[in-house]
Amino acid sequence: PWIAARDGAVLTLLYGCGLRISEGLGLNGRDWPFRDALTIRGKGGRERQVPMLPVARDAVAAYLRLSPWPLEPDQPLFRGARGGRLSAGIVETTMRRARQAMGLPPTATP
């Protein structure tokens, strides 16, 4: 159940905030709790502010309540099954399955 909550939280955060996969997966425990906006360091090291939708914040909170891993400042916010940082490949596979289930074209990305 925590993995399903994690996958939902990641996709909601990426889509709801317009983040690249690497930006979402680069978040650490110190980045939580999210406020009304999130500071993201993107391509080329540039920082930008992105608005935080309540639905994305709530999805991440639900995932964190179910996660078996403690939330630590220097550890990844989104973890894989063994506790390491969640890989982009897992997110891409999850997105591909969600697209297929909804009948969306392959060009639909978070």
What's the helix and strand layout?
Elements (H helix, E strand, L loop, with lengths): L1 H16 L3 H5 L11 E5 L5 E5 L2 H13 L21 H15 L8
Antiparallel strand pairs: 1-2
Helix pairs in contact: 1-3
Keywords: DNA recombination
InterPro entries: DNA_brk_join_enz, Integrase-like_cat_sf, Integrase_catalytic
Protein name: Tyrosine-type recombinase/integrase
Would you kindly provide a written description of the structure presented here, covering whatever features stand out?
By secondary structure, this protein is mainly alpha-helical. It has one domain (2-102): Intergrase catalytic core (hpI Integrase, Chain A, Orthogonal Bundle). The chain has four helices and two strands; from the N terminus they run H-H-E-E-H-H. The chain has a two-stranded antiparallel sheet. A hairpin with a 5-residue loop joins strand 1 and strand 2 (47-51). Helix 1 runs antiparallel to helix 3 (54-66). It is globular, with a radius of gyration of 13 Å. It comes from Glutamicibacter soli.
Query: How many beta-strand elements?
Result: 2
Mean pLDDT: 94
Order of strands in the sheet with most strands: 1-2
Q: List the helices and strands in order.
A: HHEEHH
* Assembly type: single chain
Number of helices: 4
- Provide the structure class: mainly alpha
At the first level of CATH, what is the class?
A: Mainly Alpha
Strand count, sense and barrel status of the largest sheet are:
2 strands, antiparallel
In angstroms, what is the radius of gyration? 13 Å
Number of domain modules: 1
